[in-house]
Amino acid sequence: MKNLQLLFILVVIVLAGCASGEERWKKGIVSETFIYEEAPFPSCHAATIEETPEGLIAAWFGGTHERHPDVCIYTSRYVDGAWTEPVNTADGVVNDTLRYPTWNPVLFQVPEGALWLFYKAGPSPSTWKGYMKTSNDAGKTWSEVRALPEGFIGPVKNKPVQLESGTILCGSSTEGDAWRIHMEATDPEAKEWAKTGFMNDGKTFQAIQPTILQHPDGVLQILCRSKNRVIVESWSYDDGKTWSLFQESDLPNNNSGFDGVTLSDGRHVLVYNHVKTPANAGKGYRTPLNISVSKDGRTWYAAAILEDSEISQYSYPAVIQGSDGMLHIVYTWRREKIKYVRVDPDKLKLSRIMDEKWPSK
Q1: Is 212 within 8 Å of 222 (Cβ atoms)?
Q2: Stated pTM of the model
Q3: Could you give the C-alpha distances from 228 to 51, 177, 179, 306, in angstroms and in order?
Q4: Distance between CA atoms of 344 and 321, rounded to whole angstroms?
Q5: How do beta strands 327-333 and 337-343 pair?
Q6: pLDDT digit of tens for each residue in the chain (361 aa)?
Q7: I need a surface site. Which of 216, 242, 302, 340 has the fewest CB within 10 A?
């Protein structure tokens, strides 16, 4: 009997410890919900989110499966505390007999201007082309599709940023013979476009999908997905015209997309899978899904875990800070749904990340 009582006590202690640990990594999470419960497509991916003068809007691609020609861009607006039914907003129809899948939508609200929707269409990421639509009513209606200038694809996954000069800077990349990063820039009406050359050779670091962080005095930092088992970074001190040599950051990467944002108080937030690709593997697991915070973009602190299940994947997040001060996050939930989470950045409990290892508490 004493042995059974001791065993019971040990089980209670272990369960209490597990519950306490789970609660620790949920601090700051205010609410979470799916954008939709049912949809006219079985698979979805690559969500994006933005705040308009009338509230939040999200977009993603959905269809039979990624690369299927029926994949379209869907949007949903957050109205009166709930997400509206998904609306088919863009497709890859070329003519009556040819259509391509669409890919990686990116929303961007031009300050005091239109809402932009960038997306790609084509058979694959190595052959897709860039397109955009605009909305003057917060995403209720959209313009006709407009092809970007030849050789431009716009922001490849993550949102642009507007510089003090007014220039809108987009992080872009290509996936042809090698994974390489470049930056594209345009004006607030998206009429004139310019871009840098490739910023990496695709050999030392194979990187795509940069997210842009903004530092004091006009300094910029990009963090990039890579095949090198680590998040790759580069810095600019001239508004993105030139960039430093790519280097390893202090964070692991599973060869999957992520997103970051610079907060109004100057801190930086990253939403990503804190997972390192196993040696000699092409990709790592897309779970768990984590939040980390940094004051300088170099030293990172573990803050929260949004998902931590071994079932399927939780990936390709997008994050913004809203006018309410909250973090608004969307991401792929098992390729079945798009999940929306609201986080209070001031309530996150931080623990230093050392040697790429997520702390135990």
Answers
A1: yes
A2: 0.94
A3: 33, 16, 11, 25
A4: 10
A5: antiparallel
A6: 555 454 433 333 333 344 456 899 999 999 999 999 999 999 999 999 999 999 999 999 999 999 999 999 999 999 999 999 999 999 999 999 999 999 999 999 999 999 999 999 999 999 999 999 999 999 999 999 999 999 999 999 999 999 999 999 999 999 988 999 999 999 999 999 999 999 999 999 999 999 999 999 999 999 999 999 999 999 999 999 999 999 999 999 999 999 999 999 999 999 999 999 999 999 999 999 999 999 999 999 999 999 999 999 999 999 999 999 999 999 999 999 999 999 999 999 999 999 999 999 9
A7: 216
